[in-house]
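Hi support team,

I'm filing this because I wasn't sure whether my run with adenosine-5'-diphosphate finished correctly. The job status page said complete, but I'd like someone to confirm that the output block is well-formed before I use it downstream. Pasting the exact inputs I used:
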Amino acid sequence: MASLSIDHVVKNFGNVEVIKDVSLKVKDGEFVVLVGPSGCGKSTLLRLIAGLEDVTKGDIFVGDENVTRRSPAQRRIAMVFQSYALYPHMSVRKNLAFGLENLRMDRKEINDRVSRAADMLGLEKLLDRRPKALSGGQRQRVAIGRAIVREPSMFLFDEPLSNLDAKLRVQTRGEIIKLHRQLKSTMVYVTHDQVEAMTMADRIVVMHDGIMEQVGTPLELFDTPANLFVAGFIGSPK
Ligand code: ADP
Ligand code: MG
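And here is everything the job wrote out:
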């Protein structure tokens, strides 16, 4: 696993500056939650980190390596989305193994990785099922499993729980926290849910209109919000 450093990153879409000179360091093994209203640039920032969009200015480092010009595959950063995008015609086992088969990894290594991920996520008994025979929460676990088997340098989550009902959301949230403890992996997690942010984060980044309003622990943000926007968003009395 690795640290992440975002250094003066700017992203324009046409004439519109969507990410405005953002810098952030995420420590190795840290769980950072990005919050902010819809349209403030959270997904764009994740896509820039993953290499799915090119930065307009600035640099992105994974550990000591400048990955700004590297492809998504070279960055080895896993991204988990809210829509699970599983292959409907493949078993869970096959869904987990598929990305590895494309890497021409040997069969034993693939099987070992699939077993370890299934074990970690409680999917052992579901390996021969098709996605349509799974609940929403189970599908989301398979989607996370597909990221785990690649042994990525870090995980990015883009509102992974927003398609789940309240009960499943709490349960899956617990599983992601457990996973973070087991893998000790660096994670950047986007949500617009303040409760999720306050309960999961080592540090929270509050974004607004392409900038970072404040970065701090949940307690720091609650106790000493930098401005009214942060106070309003976090729900603290200022
Ligand atoms: P969030 O995830 O916080 O809701 P996004 O990162 O999706 O916000 O979007 C930030 C802004 O960038 C929005 O105004 C959105 O319309 C714009 N945007 C995102 N992707 C594109 C794109 N591919 N082309 C043009 N504008 C985009
Ligand atoms: Mg988004």
